[in-house]
Amino acid sequence: MTFSCSARALRAAMMAGLVATALSSGAAFAQDATVKIKSFMFMPMAVTIHAGETVTWTNMDEEPHTVTSNTGLFRSGGIDGGGTYSFKFAKPGVYKYSCSIHPQMIGTITVQ
Ligand SMILES: [Cu+2]
User: Fold this and answer.
1) pTM of the model
2) CB atoms < 10 A from the CB of 83, how many?
3) Spatial separation of the C-alpha atoms in residues 11 and 8, rounded to whole Å
4) Residue 21 has pLDDT above 80, yes or no
């Protein structure tokens, strides 16, 4: 009787530990996002992710573009056609960015 009780308690403790490990690592629940750069636009223009997730931009135009944070937090440099750039957003906030070559190209990443 006491054995089954303690075994159950032990299993519960192990389960709780596994859940806590998965939550703290963040990797298990990451929903990384992708943004296409096409026809001189970021698509979608607005993306919402969770802290710790990564956004990857892919340039589908022939022209080079950049992904440049308004605050300087991230700066891709020139991304040639077919190239990609990724940035991991560690903290919640609203991050506006543009293409430094074509300033009319703008986008926003909201990190919850
Ligand atoms: Cu551009």
Assistant:
1) 0.74
2) 16
3) 5
4) no
